[in-house]
Amino acid sequence: MKKVFAIVLAAAMIAAMFAGCGSGSSADAGTIKVGMTGPLTGGAAVYGTAVEAGMKIAVEEINAAAGDSGLKIEFKSADDEHDGEKALNAYNTLKDWGMQFFAGCVTTAPCLSVAPQAVEDQVFMMTPSGSSEKIANTGSNIFQMCFTDPNQGANAALLVAEKEMATNIGIIYDSSDDYSKGLVDGFKTKGAELGLNIVCETSFTSDNKSDLSTQVTQCKDAGCDFVFLPFYATEAAQVLTYANKIGYEPTFFGCDGMDGVLTIDGFDTALAEGLVLMTPFNPDAEETQDFVSKYKDMMDGVVPNQFAADGYDVIYSIYNACVATGIDGTTSAADACAKLEEYFATYTFDGLTGSGMTWDAAGMISKVPAAVIIENGKYVAF
Question: Of the four, 111, 166, 210, 310, which is 20 to 30 A from 127 by CA?
Answer without folding.
Answer: 210
